[in-house]
Specification:
111 residues, 7 helices
Length: 111
């Protein structure tokens, strides 16, 4: 299970930090060799969670040790809201069209 999915579960089911940690214990979920229980705090307290470039999620997941990667892509939305004025302001700051329209990162893989 990966962080975005855990975040979705936490939000969808309104799981507490302890409930997510217990789920990690039950399913033997680890992150870089550490039990989920030891690292789950950042899901609830990090100022940086979900604030990285959306392409970083795609890049990070590209190297996961899975037998088959089904989807590892960005879902784009808001085409009508990305006006020329907004683009002119944000493109020079390093934002790409793909980044500005990225609404969600989808990862589907077979372990």
């Amino acid at each position: 299970m990966f962080a975005a999915e855990l975040r979705r579960l936490r939000v969808a089911a309104e799981l507490t930090q302890e409930q997510v940690a217990a789920l990690g214990d039950e399913k033997h979920i680890t992150h870089n060799g550490q039990a989920l229980r030891e690292v789950v705090g950042w899901l609830y307290t990090s100022d940086y969670f979900n604030r990285l470039s959306s392409n970083r999620y795609v890049e990070a997941c590209a190297g996961l040790p899975v037998s088959k990667m089904v989807h590892n892509c960005l879902w784009q939305d808001g085409f009508d809201e990305l006006t020329k004025e907004i683009a002119v302001e944000l493109f020079p700051k390093g934002y790409t069209r793909e980044e500005l329209l990225a609404a969600s990162h989808t990862l589907t893989a077979i372990k």
